[in-house]
């Protein structure tokens, strides 16, 4: 099978990571995949913040789920997607960027999972300057990335009946 297609079809969400930090080159490729993702009217209204400071990661976790838990599965890298407040394509652009990053991470042999919680909490999603989010931007999604601990999840069996092909 074509390697790109194989990679697209085998990506899974990974929720268990080793402590080892990902390589700078891999992070850079994942971020390139993000900034080159399709986006509405090519406005590129986004900013990507790669958080690799363990202390800050735990502090963010504490804000989101309280002390002693990790909403980000203790991944060594968390990429926060933020979008200029008020942009009409906020959700669509976020999804395109996150999907590109997940696929890039998988192609590089890394695991990742979209962690949504900050986006649902409007009290904190625009107040994250200390975590590298620019003023006027709102965090709309996050991606935990790292090396997979244990086995990579098996290919997902999709729900049947979700495709129609209409031909003449
Ligand atoms: C919009 C969105 C939000 C998600 N939020 C979370 C989340 O907060 N935590 C989590 O563990 N997984 C989250 N996921 C991952 C989904 O649970 C996962 O994609 C789905 O179960 C299908 O599994 P797969 O990615 O392994 O194919 C999210 C995915 C999407 C697209």
From TrEMBL:
CDD domains xref list: Nitro_FMN_reductase
Keyword annotations from UniProtKB, A to Z: NAD
InterPro entries assigned to the protein according to its UniProt record, in alphabetical order: Nitroreductase (IPR029479), Nitroreductase-like (IPR000415), Nitroreductase/BluB (IPR050627)
GO MF assignments: oxidoreductase activity, acting on other nitrogenous compounds as donors, with NAD or NADP as acceptor
Listed GO CC annotations: cytosol
Domain Nitroreductase: 9-65, 68-147
PANTHER family: NADPH NITROREDUCTASE, OXYGEN-INSENSITIVE NAD(P)H NITROREDUCTASE
Name of the protein: Nitroreductase
Naturally occurring in which organism (per UniProt): Sphaerochaeta globosa (strain ATCC BAA-1886 / DSM 22777 / Buddy) (Spirochaeta sp. (strain Buddy))
């Amino acid at each position: 099978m074509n390697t790109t297609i194989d990679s697209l079809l085998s990506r899974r969400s990974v929720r268990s990571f080793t402590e080892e930090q990902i390589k700078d080159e891999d992070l850079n490729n994942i971020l390139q995949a993000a900034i080159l993702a399709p986006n509405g009217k090519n406005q590129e209204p986004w900013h990507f913040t790669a958080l690799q400071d363990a202390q800050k990661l735990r502090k963010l976790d504490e804000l989101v789920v309280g002390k002693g838990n990790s909403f980000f599965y203790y991944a060594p890298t968390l990429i926060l997607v933020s979008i200029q407040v008020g942009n009409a394509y906020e959700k669509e652009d976020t999804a395109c960027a996150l999907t590109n990053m997940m696929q890039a991470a998988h192609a590089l042999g890394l695991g990742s999972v979209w962690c949504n919680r900050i986006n649902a909490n409007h009290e904190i999603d625009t107040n994250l300057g200390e975590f590298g989010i620019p003023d006027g931007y709102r965090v709309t999604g996050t991606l935990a990335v790292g090396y997979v601990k244990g086995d990579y999840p098996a290919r997902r069996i999709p729900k049947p009946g979700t495709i129609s092909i209409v031909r003449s």
